[in-house]
């Protein structure tokens, strides 16, 4: 089944005012930023209220959408003429966009609430909530827009919010640098998305999803491959996929709720959204979709390997996020058979990863903001709720039977195996590594001996923080089964992304090769982690480690590579260009003028005789210009 | 005959006379009168602008008076859409600049008493500003090419004095460099204007009558070159750009805003109207070399901007990069690109204006234009830092802010232009898109060094923006965000005007009319 036709919304229901989802948090951000300190007292409450209000609109819209027949479940809501003759602003309400909207506003609201507690001691809490609201608004624009330009505005808007929030403690140089790095690396991806849009506009004369429907076949296969690869470059930037992954680990400089919301649950999954939303291009180009799966597999392994070596709990989770998005990307590259699993895994991951990030935040809150797991240990008794919820998230991510990740990740691996043995087996291998590094995290943090600093007095966090944890862990338990059983989510998404020719069979407990071997590998990984970090004592100082450990600790030398390939040559290029501009274009011409004028002695003192110098230098410049025109234009 | 434009041009210059004639010691009154006059001009212009009908005649509010009958020189004025939005840009910026430069001529001192600029004549500064306003309106309104030329040259005089007497330490160096470059360009243009007069043989300088008058390709090319080089110096394009960083860095912030925000636009405006329409065959023949120069400006300007240590020079180089986009859009010969270029002229004025002004406010607190002398400003002056960031984000064309719309249109329009076989222009558009990455580097690196990090010792005593400074910046930010989401009012006026240009150049409009005919 192909996706259904997008039609203009003519009803009078909530879908007609779905722009409120974006407008409310945007208004919240505007009020908090413009009114400033006046709102310090109640700013966080306004932030939470706006996010919750947006959630309510999303739920009402969802209910209305479910009431429509399946072939009417893609509604375009026209807003206004943006660039006349080129782009109209509008929202696309369909199962895909609303799935995201519910995740963003639902998990987003929980994280807003959690932040009331987490940021309670921060003098700038109001500004924090302003940025969170800005993020929610931009992210909703990204997923709800019915055209690529609106998507791009949201795309860069979340990039801005991410920049502001990574650098929230901008007085720390490391935070300021990490924020800048995230934005710039993302812009490399944005370059791809931009050029992709140039080609789409040139080839199809539209950037609206509705108008593109059914037109994709008109373009040549080379064009489609180019579009696919360029969009993928954009997706790699936003979703921290190879080769644009390097910013995500540094982004952990931001406050932990930010890591949970933006750098785990929502923003970093935008690349997967882009690929699925642009599915028609990828389905039409086998090269492009193959590259998507390669990127996914490479990143799921790279992220997992990085996760194995990190002692910083947040960076460990960040590596894991990379890896899990790799799974989603792999699923997204598999066409309609993979879309539903990719998005279901994305939603499940949104819950269990946010759960674990917030859990990590709760631990840090209790441990004087310590992030080094070598200085944790034995925390399960002192922080029972944090421990229990974290355990749920942990079991969900490693694919423990019947929990969320078990069903969603398994779906991706099974589908991958059908497409190609190599990608299937590598994905299974990744699951095994996940079993290892996540277990390592659990053993180092909650089990074993106390390795705390002297002034650490761990305690359970207040209920404003634990209640969101509990809710998120509930999602981590049951959501996977709910979405996957009976192909429920696949059928729900079908109007937006289509259905595969053959529906997969659902098993409560799958006994396929993939299912059993991945479980075995996970058990092996977890056992090895127990042997190294549970049974034996964890040294407080990290051992030097083998070549492989160092390789993983250094993020597979991604930064070193960027530095030697781009930063250093870039710095030299800049220096040369500045020198050339000062001495070359200006100075060389001055010197030439001096030589001609025979007044070189005086030329060094710019205050004297520069009239003549410049007369000559202008002449020289103009002669260059005229020369260029003459040469190329053949006067 | 419509009295609108002559009145708009007369009010500022009369105001200038009044300000100049005020008795000694009435500095405050001089400022107030200037502000009042500039506000009146702004309101009048906006009242005029709403009466402009985009689908009506090309030139509206037309007025013509004989001036030098023996040569057929007329005082001819009238505006099309592009001219209208540029006049609107000018008259909106002037009151903002007046308020921003309120104390600039009083002698600027930092909190610790370091003199940045000694006290100079307040009355002269503000009357120069008003004189300049008349000329800015005149240069965009002139429909007589000789009149255009007069304004083109005369504009230099007030700006020369504003830089030369009110600027920073290297002011006279910068002012002379600015003047000489511009005079040279003006000279070339004068030759071309006279050449045009005789070659056309129509006994008039009126632009509408001269369109299509030159048919001989060789003549077209020579005259085109004269105009183009003058405009390329003004805009400025690499390699004739080096006067701009000096002039902009030395000029007081307010004058820099008008210099980069408005005066430089005369160059790109001139290319769009005169180079293209008077010499269409030459323009087509020269498209590729000019687009190449424009792309070089885009990338080169951005790279050199990254390496700057002086904030104002950095902003100047970003402008060179942005002018490259405008020129590329003008010569891409597609409606999307040209509308984008014209829109860019306006948006760049607001964005760079805001950035120059907020940088000026920062510099006035410390007395140093060097980025390295700051650090951690956000902690002590969060409002200033916030405005700085927003202006910076407009400079890197963040989607949602006005510059994005124009940059996107220029790039898409260039990529999709079928005017000369899409290959070359498509490559140009792709290369220019690299500037999207470079822009993030030059802006955010400056932000990181100046605003973030631990608060520098020298920055600790900074006061945040005062009410006047907020009033200066707030309208610019509102315009940047407003036109970022609702560019339609400007585009509705610009697009028909650009269609006239394309019709006169006789280019088949590839993008909108045929909705992209495929690659």
From TrEMBL, chain B:
Principal subcellular localisation of the protein: membrane
UniProt keywords, alphabetically: Membrane, Transmembrane, Transmembrane helix
Cellular compartments annotated: Endomembrane system; Membrane
GO annotation, biological process: ATP synthesis coupled electron transport; electron transport coupled proton transport
Signal peptide positions (record): none
Domain NADH:quinone oxidoreductase/Mrp antiporter transmembrane, first and last residues per copy: 142-419
InterPro entries for the chain: NADH_Q_OxRdtase_chainM/4, NADH_UbQ_OxRdtase, ND/Mrp_TM
GO terms for cellular component: endomembrane system; membrane
Lineage: superkingdom: Bacteria
A GO term, aspect molecular function: ubiquinone binding
Topological type in the membrane: Multi-pass membrane protein
TM segment ranges: 6-22, 34-52, 81-102, 122-140, 146-166, 178-200, 222-244, 256-274, 286-307, 314-336, 342-363, 383-405, 425-445, 465-486
Homology family: Belongs to the complex I subunit 4 family.
PANTHER family membership: NADH-UBIQUINONE OXIDOREDUCTASE CHAIN 4
Identification of the protein by name: NADH-quinone oxidoreductase subunit M
Organism (species): Nonomuraea endophytica
Lineage: Bacteria, Bacillati, Actinomycetota, Actinomycetes, Streptosporangiales
